[in-house]
Amino acid sequence: MLSPDSGPASNDPWSPYGIRTSLDRSAFLVDLMTAAEKAGLAVEQLHTEYGHDQLEMSLAPASAVETADAVILARIVIGRAAARHGMKISFSPVPFAGAAGNGAHVHLSLADAGGPLFSGGDGPYGIRPRGGAAIAGVLDTMPDLIGVYAGSALSAQRLKPGNWAGAAACWGLENREAAVRFIAATPGNPHGANAELKLVDPSANPYLAAAAFLGSALRGIDRQLTLPPEIPEDPRRSEATPPPLPTDQRSAIEALERSTTAAELLTPPIIEGLAAVRRHELTTYGDRPPAETTQALRLAWSC
């Protein structure tokens, strides 16, 4: 949430995930939820987040295209509701230099004729072999697809260890530092196991991010890849060091352009167009200091 001049929305004390910060903004939140319902958006959660003036909205599960449609609609609804309350909204990966970033986490659940792939099996946390292959496929293609998931001029400022941004190419149960956070099934939700791709940020095209995520998982299944060992803790403290990801924008663009896998999943024309946009960003903003870049792009992804 931003002020009308695109600065911080408030200087009030902020309690991450706290009820007081929600109650203080109840008029806006109620208006937002009412507008979302009228627009047909299925919202599962809306709550205050870690960063100052930061909110998180979780959308209900749907197909890949329906989910991407919902993301676009949600941004419009959120922006219009904020305007009615004298605010602006930033969907920038990093609205303010040195402050908390914004994620656009994507959750994936898969099933076949035998049931869910992420539960009911003999693997870790009940993961079935095809579910493990899906996670392995996502990790296998990840270095090539950073430019799709988090390839903007600001993405690298968010994609750092300690930011809960999934900066490490590994998976782990409820591991917010892992690029793939695994959420296991529970007795109350036996079919609810899913894999969350944490490194995606709001600068990503939601249609391309969903296609890359799903396509990578299916590629892993087709190739019968083996689930890598879990990294259950902060990767910086793990004995098994995950491979590094190309987090600076130039490296991400180059990895995307030379990747035959990215072209296979998304087609060469789409890769060419996406890389051209990212190179324009790099040329325009690559040499600017973080404070200047975050200010220039604060509203770049807002509606």
From TrEMBL:
Keywords: Ligase. Signal peptide: none annotated. One of its GO terms (biological process) is glutamine biosynthetic process. It holds the Pfam family Gln-synt_C. Residues 1-303 form the GS catalytic domain. GO terms for molecular function: glutamine synthetase activity. Residues 227-248 are annotated as: Disordered. The keyword Lipid metabolism does not apply. Coiled coil: none annotated. Belongs to the glutamine synthetase family. This is GS catalytic domain-containing protein.
